[in-house]
Amino acid sequence: MADTKKYILAIESSCDDTSAAVLCNANVLSNVVATQEIHKQYGGVVPELASRAHQQNIVPVVHQALAKANIDKKELSAIAFTRGPGLMGSLLVGTSFAKSLALGLDIPLIKVNHMEAHILAHFIEDEGMTPPSFPFLAMTISGGHTQIVKVTDHFSMEVLGETLDDAVGEAFDKSAKLMGLPYPGGPLVDKYAQLGNPKAYDFPKPKVDGLNFSFSGLKTSILYFLQRETQKNPDFVSQNINDICASVQYTILEILMEKLEMAVEQTGIKQVAIGGGVAANSGIRARLKEAEESMGWKTYIPKFQYCTDNAGMIGIVGYLKFEKGEFTDQSVAAKARYAIGT
Prior knowledge:
Number of strands: 10
CATH superfamily of the largest domain: ATPase, nucleotide binding domain
Structural class: alpha/beta
Distance between the termini: 35 Å
Largest sheet: 5 strands, mixed
CATH architecture of the largest domain: 2-Layer Sandwich
Number of helices: 9
């Protein structure tokens, strides 16, 4: 059955990670990610610098992905790429490269929605990963997005709620910045939170209708809290960093879990999957595992490498679309704003 093997080269360049992967059907043979260190000195992603770094990284990253998979480019069945959403300059690099290579190799081109890919990463065939069955609820939590999505089929998704302002990843990073922690601060908040008391400080949870989220008010309350306490004690943050991080993380996770519980109640769907960079957070993973026992949910958490931006998740969407014969043509353009299901 050798002729049933489809080799997909996938390219992801939506933000500040340049990634390429090679999949054989639903199996990831290689998943290479080049992280851009330059943004640390600016405390956040600088779009112009990100697109320049993608231009430098994309050829060696693709070359490495092919080499690690032990695949010649002439064996490729198709090329999948992130069309959006994301930073326009970054998306243009990946889109242009994918179009050029597909044209040169005379193979099909497949456009992928970055947010759908975070959800469908669960369908990668990898040891220790079991895909959810339909229908299921997906919560995508990343630096740029926070959404609850009802997934009826691989390509039938409905957004039930989303953030009205900051994404959850931004809430983590901005809170970390207020504490003087370096970028990206989210993983550091998680690290210190594990050593602190989550009930040490009380932060307000925003009142938002339905299944939508808001994190900007929380960020403001943390700012005022830190200003007030450091006026009394200039060393307050350094002396209480573990408890502050634990309390901030606890509040953010409470907001996420309350909305997720509401979504399960409204839909009656008890299969819950998460995706996106914040899915690597130890706190959210622990809370979901608790929900399995306390509320009878079945929860799905991808491996760490498929949580953050990576081309493996783009490749699985590419493979699923290849099987359906869903290809795009050379007129396709990158889209900074690109809603699920469009």
